[in-house]
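Protocol step 6 of 9: fold each sequence in the batch and record its structure tokens directly after the sequence line. For illustration, a two-sequence batch is reproduced in full.

Sequence one:
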Amino acid sequence: MTNIGFAGRDGVFTLENAENITGLYLPLAGERGLKSAVTPNLGGDSKIDQNTFLLEPVSIENLHSNRGTRNFWCRMADGAIWSVCGASAAQEAEKFGPKQEKSRVTGGFLWQALEREGAQGLYAKTESFVTVRGEQEAMLVTLVNRAAAPLTFTPVAAVPLYGRSADNLRDHRHVTSLLHRIRVTSNGVIVKPSLSFDERGHRENEMLYFAAANGPDGALPIAIYPTAEMFLGEGGTFLNPEAVRSDKPGTPAGTLIEGREAMGAMAFDAVTLAPGESTQYVVRFGLTQEAGTLPALMNVLDTPVKAAAALEEVRQHWQKLVNVEFATGDSVRDNYLKWVCFQPILRRIFGCSFLPYHDYGKGGRGWRDLWQDCLALLIMDPGDVRGMIVDNYGGVRMDGTNATIIGEKQGEFVADRNNITRVWMDHAFWPLVTTEFYLNQTGDFSVLLEKAPYFKDRQIRRGMAHDDMWQPADGSRQRTADGTVYEGTVLEHILLENLCAFYDVGAHNELRLHNADWNDALDMAADKGESVAFTNAYAGNLHGLVKILQKLGAEKITVAQELTALLGHDDIFDDPTAKNDILSRYEATCAHANSGRTVELDTAALMTDLTAKANWMQCHVRETEWVTDGKSGWLNGYYDNHGQPVEGVVNDLPRMMLPSQVFGIMYGTTTAEQTAEICRSADRYLFEEKIGGYRLNTNFKEKKLDLGRMFGFAYGEKENGAVFSHMTVMYANALYQRGFAKEGAKALDTLLNTAMDFAVSKMYPGLPEYFNNDGRGLYPYLTGAASWYMLTEICWVYGVRGEWGDLVIAPALQKAQFGGGSVSVTLPFAGRTLRVRIENADGIEQKDYRVYSAALDGTALPVAEGILRIPRAEIEALTADAIHEITVILHA
């Protein structure tokens, strides 16, 4: 098996005969509009949302079998038919055999180039991309005669147009084809279904789908086949279509055809190429609701020259956005890290849906995804993050829960993707994580005092009741008794999220699990389930709030009057029932409307109160949740729906879950000695190097219907014991924060090394959601692990991070990570581009070195206590149009 290869430092990779590996695909997309996936044989689909698929929807299991997708054919002079992507019956018959054609995929950020050499000496290069504006996908096909004699062939472009909802793939597939109205143009076809089919209420359709093709200098097709049956012929298939294998007449421009499956198939005049001569064709397909713009849209890329220019715009646009670069001395690693840095951008575009593995969502980013992706944006593109943070707090309810799906526009929210009333108990934790990182990176504490509304719908009392007085016509904003939309500060939103969680406890005085926490598959313990893992996390948030309030420096803060009911009560912390009662009384004050009145709180008293709550939570966990096998210990992180602890030694079977350890370590619940014990336990029970490192959990060897669906999955797959990248990276992050850098490096390196071992991972560059029992990387591109890996690598491994707006550099690189004694990272900070070079010429171990000296653009900088700190003002004073060098020398 060939390996991934890189030619430079910009992430562009090559892979020979990539079609021999199952499940490979690249995402293609614009800033908005089309979201596509393309495989090495041009499979995949294209869409804008769940109800608007341009190409037929595919999931990973039919990605390799569906041939009704993009293609470009050449009918040779002797009658043989040849596909530029190998998707013909003859070429597939030769796959894996001695006559298999040579092919190569070259992939970059949102573009793919497929090269193939045919048996008669015809070479093809097919470059696929979606325009930056996202209105259409294009294929630029270059054909070259590499034979010793002239070659004559007839080119035929072929794109089946699906043009309807993904639901219709199995629901009324034929019936919805009867809605199609297909019009033939001079260079393609336009499809406008008469209705948007929905048995809950059919609607008139406004969406137009199209496919078009042109040859050199804009040459028009000589024959167009606007339906699948015309193209395929009786008994034909997409691997052997009649319109390709024979000189079949087409359909004249202006023809209207109704009630058939649509096809964008366009044949051109036969062409003869002398040896070494080439020709080009451009195929494109897209959609729009603006009928008046369609003619221009179909012809904006009507020559290969225009298509080549659009492709170059795509390459430059996305490359520019990935403005972080590592130089580790290992070019393969540097390029993989480049793709990791690109993955948060893909999440911004795709959410967690619309790629072949990610077929469980219907669009939109989830609440948790939104806040974690902002972590990476704060490093790469912090300019717009402030507005995003303020707007996104508008998704918080006054009971501390939130809408779970982000709408199409910033600040738009949907209660839930599937209209199910439910609460993920971890959701309220993440906004402060991102906000605190924002404060550290920018020093902009004024954001805390910005006003934002609260989200309002029928769901109240943290998903446990309905507000029957609320009607959709009332809108999605919390109102006061007089009907005024209520707005509170960002700080008030944060306080409500975390204080409500503090009182929402189960019988063991740990925070209630509700419908799940970070692990969505812990979804069957809503009655008695508890999450010790996120009890630790929320305790960390309360401590973090105290630090933020100290830096804010305000003697008083203004909050909703109702919030004061959640303060104090330290005499009942040990009583879960009393806590629930306090929360219930608070919820009643804002279930339908709140008073709108505000009060001023003494900040010092508030800080004392938050500290008391956080300390109590951590002490409670230390005293009640430590388990041991007699050799080492770890934290129990959950209670199931029977109210029983989940982890420990059960019937001589050690049970351990990685998330249970992460947040206890990260936020200081565990002592240094306990953290060391957890590391030993994790290495004993969870670590498996050949599949990527740390499994999510041990094998419980039961279905555990009283905890979650994950235990119905095969062990070692997805949430049940796979190496789940996101939590592995958070484990590493927690270890770095607590000074266990060597152990953290082991987690990070094993994960990335597995991804880079193509023979094992069988995936394009980047981090997958998880590695299965074979070490294969699954669910690539759309994983929160990328943001956390990027943050951990920059801020804790390289040690380049903001601290309340200033720049701090405190490396924790291991000796082995210094390839030639020096590494660097280039990144933006405070509106300037910095290249931080860290030198360890003497090869000193991490535990023994410190920052000895430093310089900025050659000028020495002061170093104190082995750490470099540069005031923000000094960086902002640097010129904006240059890369500024910071050199850090490490010494014992």
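Sequence two, same batch, same settings:
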Amino acid sequence: MQPDAAPWQHLELTPEQLSLRFPPERLAGETTDEIEPLEGIIGQERAVRAMEFGLRVKHPGYNIYMAGPTGTGKNTYARRIVQEFARQEPVPDDWVYVYNFAAPDEPIALSLPPGMGSQLARDMDELVEELKAAVPRHFESDDYEKQRDAIVREFQEQSQALIDQAEKVAQEHGFALRRTSTGFATVPLVDGRPITQEEFETLPEEQRRALEAANKEIHTHVAEATRRIRALEKQARERVRDLEREVARSAVSQPMAELKEKYQALPRVVAYLEAVERDIVESIDEFKDEEEDEPPMPWVRRRGRRSFVRYRVNLLVDNQSAQGAPVVIEANPTFANLFGKLEYRHELGAMVTDFTMIKAGALHRANGGYLIVQVQDLLKNPWAWDGLKRALKSGEVRIESVGEQMGVLPVSALKPQPIPVRVKIVMVGSPYLYHLLLYADEEFRKYFKVLADFDVEMPISDEHANAYARFVAAVCRRDGLKPFHREAVARIIEHSARLAEHKGRLSTRFNEIVEVVYEASAWAGAEGAALVQASHVRRAIQEQEYRSSRVEEKFLELLAEGQILVDVDGERIGQINGLSIVELGDYAFAKPTRITASVAVGDRGVVNIEREVEMSGRIHDKGVLILSGYLAEKYPIGMPLALSASLCFEQLYEEIEGDSASSAELYALLSALSGLPIRQGIAVTGSVNQKGEIQAVGGVNRKIEGFFALCKLKGLTGQQGVIVPQANVVNLVLRDEVVEAVRAGRFHIWAVRTADEGISILTGVPAGEPGPDGFYPDDTVNGRVWRTLEEMSRRMAEYGKGSPLDDPPSAPADEAPPAPTPMPLAPAERDARRPTGLGPRRGPGTWTSRRRLCRWLARWRAVLRRAVGA
């Protein structure tokens, strides 16, 4: 069975069909130093158009979701394109928080033109410092002292007159007045001399009563005098306070007038300055007091009087040095990082805060511009996604504590005024998360109307190839790498096609390309080369694979030692080599596996052993179930199939998924049914449908290279190879080693469209086509399978004939069930039993279940045991 002499020789692929060879002559420039570096992104026309459209539309809800796998350049492109648009837009306003004198727990948010926020903060600090120096001078002036002394003297004179009058009344009634810490006290006089309480008690009763009555009258006069003195004191204080206000106004009016004139175009700022002026006038004592001594605990912030914090300005957003609209990239989109927060300080065992400790979030900094966030990071942080939707819905940002979001008592009662927000949000994530949000959140589509979908590959063309070269040039110049010769660039393009698994496409996973560029430059440097050549690129790729191939090598060692049974020569009935892929993070390799099939008469159909023990996935189970449909479609024998076939992946100890081995399972089953051996030097991959068409599968390059590595390890015989679907030929971008082995005739690769083509290659026997009578020739694979299936159904029908199935005999012992007819039948006998057409067979035979047949056999065994005395 030499494949070169067989009629299916045309199915074997040539070396030119197995890989891509990109001509370096199609690239401009001899080296990357001679070409212009790439600016922008290549191969993403759909995503670029969507991004540009989303950035131009300024209506609410037209935020952007950038979807695509990691490594396609989404983040780099997002930063570049957003910054380009942002530079053409106006710089947004500054935002500050100031003290609210009417409601201290609700700080006021003020917007100012760019740069004026920091100017207002400086002006207020300078105002406080100026008033600290100016106010004491005004209160130390002679004019102020004279007016204040006059008020004090007037008060003292009026109050002294009232005291003198009270003393006169007391003397007239025989008492004297004395000042005490609590007011005035009356002392009785006898013969003009004050007496003590003991002396008062020795006085005659009539005199004591007269003195007590006089004392009451004196107290009435003294109380009236005290009331009038207090009224005079209050009046004097008010006059002094009015005087101080006038002095304070004279000290504050000039600098405040200058500030109000400076900010006259901003009414809300002017209103704030007027409130500051009123508060300073009312709190002028804080400016004129002398410096206090340092507190005994200097680490505790001085509170109470002389606290000028309320006059400060909290500069929340400063766009003074901005060029265009802001672009904020939030790497950790927590609730606080997005929407701002209140910081706290520890004072005397308590956590306190004020409006100066309000900190801006990413939305504040991006207000009037753009915010870029990673979707996965956003969804990982509690309350961040809901908070972002609230901000987009309300058009404002509220600074709230996380404690309030959790429903616990907040540490501070500060509620800063919300800030209006106008921001374009660009979310970067995977396609899976995009569709998940569409499905799980009905509001997602309302706020993110633009999808920029990044592809993982692009067509090969001269334009894209030269853009690849310009990309390599940009990486080399940006990171100081050695220049690449155009043959090295061509090799990178070929590697890109291998990553895309398509000879007509290039991969857009530029992270993986950059890794090869870095490492090729490093190997060129290790050899002292001035240019990076194709050999350096080839070595970089080989070294990458070598670093990750330890597990693959261990597996090949087990195959070589025979601990895992896989034959690569000889022939076996019902046994074939299948190919599966093992993925280990960023590395994948092929795993050759022996697949076996066994058949017998029965009614169980095709049984997947992996499914029975729950070691296979649903897609693999579907692929096996398709085999039954294929047999019924391909071999209409005119009666129900009487087949019990089992398929097994030998030495499989983990779950298997996918239908790429369904064609191999079909070939093993056909071999078992036809009795024809399969060449063990050939491995198979590809899925099959019910019509027998071989369908494309993934990972075809790795599968071929994995079986080639096993054959090379055990010894190449020239009769080994792999059968792949014809649809996968365009995906073949194999290693040079495999291509050279095919060129030398030491390895073969066939591409098939149907199962008939595959089984012909594997067995060396033609599959066969039905003749005019609808039957397959006897010397073909399909003819043998048909004959076997028909004989199985006939035997099953004969076992179900007549009364023995319903009423088995109980004696005598010499009777036994009729012996089955040997299989397969002779052609003449088979032809006599064949139906005249392809429709259902008519005849005396009846179909029985497996359980009924077993019950019938058990009864016969019981009869035989009784007959021999067992």
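Proceed to step 7 once all outputs are recorded. Observation for sequence two: Confidence is low (pLDDT under 50) at residues 1-5, 290-305, 801-851.
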